[in-house]
Specification:
By secondary structure, the chain is an alpha/beta fold. Helix content is 30%, strand content 27%. The structure holds ribose-5-phosphate.
Length: 282
Protein backbone atom coordinates (compact mmCIF):
# COMPACT_ATOMS: atom_id res chain seq x y z
CA UNK A 1 0.00 0.00 0.00
CA UNK A 2 1.37 3.40 -1.05
CA UNK A 3 0.07 6.93 -0.54
CA UNK A 4 -0.47 9.62 -3.15
CA UNK A 5 -1.84 13.08 -2.49
CA UNK A 6 -3.06 16.22 -4.19
CA UNK A 7 -1.10 19.48 -3.92
CA UNK A 8 -3.39 20.85 -1.20
CA UNK A 9 -3.00 17.73 0.99
CA UNK A 10 0.75 17.12 0.83
CA UNK A 11 1.46 17.49 4.53
CA UNK A 12 -1.41 15.30 5.68
CA UNK A 13 -0.66 12.77 2.94
CA UNK A 14 2.94 12.50 4.09
CA UNK A 15 1.89 12.14 7.73
CA UNK A 16 -0.55 9.36 6.81
CA UNK A 17 2.21 7.57 4.88
CA UNK A 18 4.52 7.81 7.90
CA UNK A 19 1.83 6.44 10.19
CA UNK A 20 1.31 3.56 7.74
CA UNK A 21 5.09 3.09 7.45
CA UNK A 22 4.91 3.42 3.69
CA UNK A 23 6.00 5.97 1.11
CA UNK A 24 4.35 8.74 -0.88
CA UNK A 25 4.39 8.45 -4.66
CA UNK A 26 5.71 11.56 -6.36
CA UNK A 27 3.36 13.52 -8.60
CA UNK A 28 4.19 16.33 -11.01
CA UNK A 29 1.45 18.91 -11.23
CA UNK A 30 1.10 21.59 -13.86
CA UNK A 31 -1.41 23.43 -15.95
CA UNK A 32 -1.91 23.78 -19.67
CA UNK A 33 -1.80 27.34 -21.03
CA UNK A 34 -5.61 27.46 -20.99
CA UNK A 35 -5.70 26.63 -17.28
CA UNK A 36 -6.56 22.92 -17.54
CA UNK A 37 -4.97 20.77 -14.86
CA UNK A 38 -2.38 18.16 -15.76
CA UNK A 39 -0.57 15.66 -13.58
CA UNK A 40 1.74 12.70 -13.93
CA UNK A 41 2.39 10.18 -11.19
CA UNK A 42 5.37 8.00 -10.42
CA UNK A 43 4.96 4.23 -10.37
CA UNK A 44 1.65 3.21 -8.80
CA UNK A 45 1.31 0.31 -6.34
CA UNK A 46 -1.45 -2.34 -6.52
CA UNK A 47 -3.13 -0.73 -3.52
CA UNK A 48 -3.21 3.05 -3.19
CA UNK A 49 -4.36 5.52 -0.54
CA UNK A 50 -5.36 8.70 -2.37
CA UNK A 51 -5.46 11.73 -0.06
CA UNK A 52 -7.09 14.94 -1.20
CA UNK A 53 -9.22 17.55 0.49
CA UNK A 54 -11.66 19.26 -1.78
CA UNK A 55 -11.18 22.86 -0.73
CA UNK A 56 -12.24 24.44 -4.03
CA UNK A 57 -13.19 23.46 -7.55
CA UNK A 58 -9.56 23.15 -8.72
CA UNK A 59 -8.71 20.66 -5.98
CA UNK A 60 -11.79 18.64 -6.92
CA UNK A 61 -10.63 18.38 -10.54
CA UNK A 62 -7.08 17.53 -9.44
CA UNK A 63 -8.38 14.78 -7.16
CA UNK A 64 -10.52 13.29 -9.92
CA UNK A 65 -7.52 13.27 -12.28
CA UNK A 66 -5.38 11.64 -9.60
CA UNK A 67 -7.94 8.86 -9.06
CA UNK A 68 -8.02 8.26 -12.80
CA UNK A 69 -4.22 8.12 -12.99
CA UNK A 70 -4.36 5.33 -10.37
CA UNK A 71 -7.02 3.35 -12.26
CA UNK A 72 -5.05 0.08 -12.26
CA UNK A 73 -4.89 -0.01 -8.45
CA UNK A 74 -7.35 -0.73 -5.67
CA UNK A 75 -7.91 2.78 -4.41
CA UNK A 76 -8.88 3.95 -0.93
CA UNK A 77 -9.98 7.57 -1.10
CA UNK A 78 -9.25 9.81 1.90
CA UNK A 79 -11.32 12.98 1.63
CA UNK A 80 -10.40 14.93 4.75
CA UNK A 81 -12.47 18.02 3.90
CA UNK A 82 -15.25 18.00 1.39
CA UNK A 83 -16.33 21.38 0.07
CA UNK A 84 -19.89 21.42 -1.26
CA UNK A 85 -21.04 19.23 1.67
CA UNK A 86 -23.05 22.15 3.06
CA UNK A 87 -25.27 22.21 -0.03
CA UNK A 88 -26.70 18.83 0.93
CA UNK A 89 -30.29 19.72 0.04
CA UNK A 90 -32.21 21.63 -2.53
CA UNK A 91 -32.92 24.55 -0.22
CA UNK A 92 -34.63 26.54 -2.99
CA UNK A 93 -36.21 25.49 -6.23
CA UNK A 94 -33.72 25.29 -9.09
CA UNK A 95 -30.69 24.53 -6.90
CA UNK A 96 -28.46 21.48 -7.32
CA UNK A 97 -27.72 19.06 -4.48
CA UNK A 98 -24.04 19.88 -4.83
CA UNK A 99 -22.85 17.38 -2.21
CA UNK A 100 -24.37 14.57 -4.27
CA UNK A 101 -22.59 15.76 -7.42
CA UNK A 102 -19.24 15.57 -5.59
CA UNK A 103 -19.85 12.22 -3.88
CA UNK A 104 -20.96 10.60 -7.11
CA UNK A 105 -17.98 11.94 -9.02
CA UNK A 106 -15.54 10.83 -6.32
CA UNK A 107 -17.04 7.35 -5.99
CA UNK A 108 -15.78 6.52 -9.49
CA UNK A 109 -12.62 4.44 -9.47
CA UNK A 110 -12.33 3.99 -5.70
CA UNK A 111 -13.13 1.02 -3.47
CA UNK A 112 -14.05 3.01 -0.36
CA UNK A 113 -13.96 6.47 1.15
CA UNK A 114 -12.92 7.99 4.49
CA UNK A 115 -14.10 11.49 5.42
CA UNK A 116 -13.32 13.54 8.51
CA UNK A 117 -16.08 15.41 10.35
CA UNK A 118 -18.12 15.74 7.20
CA UNK A 119 -20.57 18.59 7.66
CA UNK A 120 -23.61 16.32 7.37
CA UNK A 121 -23.34 12.55 7.85
CA UNK A 122 -26.31 11.93 5.53
CA UNK A 123 -24.00 12.96 2.68
CA UNK A 124 -22.08 9.69 3.17
CA UNK A 125 -25.08 7.80 1.86
CA UNK A 126 -24.71 9.35 -1.58
CA UNK A 127 -21.28 7.82 -2.18
CA UNK A 128 -21.84 4.72 -4.27
CA UNK A 129 -19.03 2.87 -2.41
CA UNK A 130 -18.68 2.23 1.36
CA UNK A 131 -17.88 5.47 3.18
CA UNK A 132 -16.98 6.09 6.82
CA UNK A 133 -16.60 9.35 8.71
CA UNK A 134 -14.02 9.96 11.45
CA UNK A 135 -14.27 12.57 14.19
CA UNK A 136 -11.36 14.64 15.45
CA UNK A 137 -13.17 15.57 18.68
CA UNK A 138 -10.61 13.68 20.76
CA UNK A 139 -7.65 15.37 19.05
CA UNK A 140 -9.18 18.82 19.49
CA UNK A 141 -9.89 18.03 23.15
CA UNK A 142 -6.31 16.93 23.71
CA UNK A 143 -4.99 20.11 22.12
CA UNK A 144 -7.27 22.32 24.22
CA UNK A 145 -5.97 20.39 27.23
CA UNK A 146 -2.42 21.52 26.43
CA UNK A 147 -3.52 25.16 26.75
CA UNK A 148 -4.03 24.50 30.48
CA UNK A 149 -7.02 26.79 30.73
CA UNK A 150 -8.57 26.93 34.17
CA UNK A 151 -12.11 25.57 33.99
CA UNK A 152 -12.80 26.39 30.31
CA UNK A 153 -16.30 26.65 28.92
CA UNK A 154 -16.79 24.89 25.58
CA UNK A 155 -19.40 26.62 23.47
CA UNK A 156 -21.11 25.51 20.29
CA UNK A 157 -21.91 28.56 18.16
CA UNK A 158 -25.22 27.08 17.02
CA UNK A 159 -27.49 24.07 17.20
CA UNK A 160 -25.68 22.28 14.35
CA UNK A 161 -22.35 22.31 16.20
CA UNK A 162 -23.73 21.08 19.54
CA UNK A 163 -22.99 17.38 19.18
CA UNK A 164 -19.38 17.98 18.13
CA UNK A 165 -18.74 20.60 20.83
CA UNK A 166 -20.22 18.19 23.36
CA UNK A 167 -17.79 15.42 22.34
CA UNK A 168 -14.90 17.88 22.68
CA UNK A 169 -16.10 18.97 26.14
CA UNK A 170 -16.65 15.41 27.34
CA UNK A 171 -13.10 14.54 26.23
CA UNK A 172 -11.66 17.11 28.63
CA UNK A 173 -14.34 16.87 31.33
CA UNK A 174 -15.26 20.54 30.76
CA UNK A 175 -18.51 22.51 31.00
CA UNK A 176 -20.39 22.92 27.77
CA UNK A 177 -23.20 25.05 26.46
CA UNK A 178 -24.35 26.55 23.21
CA UNK A 179 -24.88 30.09 22.07
CA UNK A 180 -28.37 31.35 21.76
CA UNK A 181 -29.33 34.27 19.57
CA UNK A 182 -31.78 36.60 21.25
CA UNK A 183 -33.36 39.23 19.00
CA UNK A 184 -33.50 42.47 20.97
CA UNK A 185 -35.00 44.54 18.16
CA UNK A 186 -35.33 44.48 14.38
CA UNK A 187 -31.63 45.26 13.97
CA UNK A 188 -30.13 44.10 17.25
CA UNK A 189 -29.24 40.53 18.17
CA UNK A 190 -27.59 39.39 21.39
CA UNK A 191 -25.66 36.12 21.54
CA UNK A 192 -25.06 34.51 24.92
CA UNK A 193 -24.53 31.02 26.31
CA UNK A 194 -27.95 29.45 26.88
CA UNK A 195 -27.39 28.30 30.46
CA UNK A 196 -23.94 29.16 31.78
CA UNK A 197 -22.27 32.53 32.27
CA UNK A 198 -19.08 33.42 30.39
CA UNK A 199 -18.09 35.88 33.14
CA UNK A 200 -14.39 35.56 34.02
CA UNK A 201 -14.08 32.29 32.09
CA UNK A 202 -11.91 31.09 29.24
CA UNK A 203 -14.34 30.22 26.48
CA UNK A 204 -13.54 27.94 23.55
CA UNK A 205 -16.01 28.18 20.66
CA UNK A 206 -15.98 24.87 18.80
CA UNK A 207 -17.38 24.29 15.31
CA UNK A 208 -16.77 21.85 12.48
CA UNK A 209 -15.92 24.56 9.93
CA UNK A 210 -14.78 28.16 10.20
CA UNK A 211 -15.53 29.70 6.85
CA UNK A 212 -16.14 33.46 6.89
CA UNK A 213 -15.69 33.42 10.66
CA UNK A 214 -18.76 35.67 10.82
CA UNK A 215 -20.61 33.74 13.50
CA UNK A 216 -17.59 33.29 15.74
CA UNK A 217 -16.41 36.90 15.34
CA UNK A 218 -19.80 38.24 16.41
CA UNK A 219 -20.02 35.77 19.28
CA UNK A 220 -16.52 36.61 20.51
CA UNK A 221 -17.29 40.34 20.66
CA UNK A 222 -20.41 39.64 22.71
CA UNK A 223 -18.70 37.15 25.02
CA UNK A 224 -16.05 39.75 25.86
CA UNK A 225 -18.85 42.23 26.59
CA UNK A 226 -20.31 39.62 28.94
CA UNK A 227 -17.03 39.48 30.85
CA UNK A 228 -15.29 36.46 29.30
CA UNK A 229 -11.61 36.33 30.29
CA UNK A 230 -10.38 34.96 26.94
CA UNK A 231 -12.06 33.56 23.87
CA UNK A 232 -10.48 30.84 21.70
CA UNK A 233 -11.88 29.30 18.51
CA UNK A 234 -11.36 25.70 17.48
CA UNK A 235 -12.56 23.87 14.40
CA UNK A 236 -11.70 20.85 12.31
CA UNK A 237 -11.72 22.53 8.92
CA UNK A 238 -10.10 25.97 8.75
CA UNK A 239 -11.54 27.30 5.50
CA UNK A 240 -10.89 30.95 6.53
CA UNK A 241 -12.37 32.53 3.47
CA UNK A 242 -12.04 36.25 2.69
CA UNK A 243 -9.70 37.22 5.53
CA UNK A 244 -11.58 35.31 8.24
CA UNK A 245 -8.48 34.56 10.31
CA UNK A 246 -7.57 38.25 10.51
CA UNK A 247 -11.16 39.17 11.36
CA UNK A 248 -11.19 36.69 14.23
CA UNK A 249 -7.90 37.96 15.61
CA UNK A 250 -9.19 41.55 15.33
CA UNK A 251 -12.08 40.55 17.61
CA UNK A 252 -9.56 39.68 20.30
CA UNK A 253 -9.69 35.89 19.86
CA UNK A 254 -6.63 34.60 21.67
CA UNK A 255 -5.96 31.73 19.30
CA UNK A 256 -7.59 29.90 16.43
CA UNK A 257 -7.02 26.17 16.27
CA UNK A 258 -7.76 23.90 13.33
CA UNK A 259 -6.64 20.53 12.00
CA UNK A 260 -4.62 19.58 8.94
CA UNK A 261 -7.66 18.48 6.92
CA UNK A 262 -6.99 21.87 5.33
CA UNK A 263 -3.31 22.69 5.70
CA UNK A 264 -2.83 25.96 7.58
CA UNK A 265 -0.17 27.41 9.78
CA UNK A 266 -2.65 27.11 12.68
CA UNK A 267 -3.21 23.38 11.97
CA UNK A 268 -2.32 22.11 15.42
CA UNK A 269 -4.23 18.84 15.34
CA UNK A 270 -3.44 16.14 12.81
CA UNK A 271 -5.96 13.72 11.38
CA UNK A 272 -3.17 11.42 10.18
CA UNK A 273 -3.07 8.80 12.96
CA UNK A 274 -6.81 8.35 13.01
CA UNK A 275 -6.98 8.02 9.23
CA UNK A 276 -4.08 5.54 9.21
CA UNK A 277 -5.79 3.54 11.97
CA UNK A 278 -9.03 3.41 9.97
CA UNK A 279 -7.14 2.31 6.84
CA UNK A 280 -5.42 -0.47 8.76
CA UNK A 281 -8.70 -1.68 10.26
CA UNK A 282 -10.70 -1.78 7.04
C1 LIG B 1 -22.44 25.57 9.26
O1 LIG B 1 -23.47 24.99 9.47
C2 LIG B 1 -21.11 25.15 9.80
O2 LIG B 1 -21.20 24.19 10.81
C3 LIG B 1 -20.35 26.35 10.33
O3 LIG B 1 -21.01 26.83 11.47
C4 LIG B 1 -20.32 27.42 9.31
O4 LIG B 1 -19.86 26.92 8.09
C5 LIG B 1 -19.41 28.55 9.77
O5 LIG B 1 -19.55 29.55 8.85
P1 LIG B 1 -18.89 30.96 9.07
O6 LIG B 1 -17.48 30.76 9.52
O7 LIG B 1 -19.00 31.57 7.71
O8 LIG B 1 -19.71 31.69 10.10
Amino acid sequence: MKVICTEKSQVLGTRIARALKTSVIDVTYSRFPDGEHYLQTGEIDDEMVIVGSVVDSDSLVQLMLLVDACDRATNHLVLPYMAYARQDKRFRQGEPVSSRVVTRALSQGVADVITVNIHEKEVLKSFTVPAQNLSLAEGISSYIGTLQLANPLILAPDEGARAFAEQVAIGGGWDRDHLEKIRLSGAEVRMAPRELSAQSRSVVIVDDIISTGGTIATAAGMLYQQGAKDVFAACVHGVFTGGAFVRLMAKGIRDVICSDTIERSCSRVSAADQIAGALIRQ
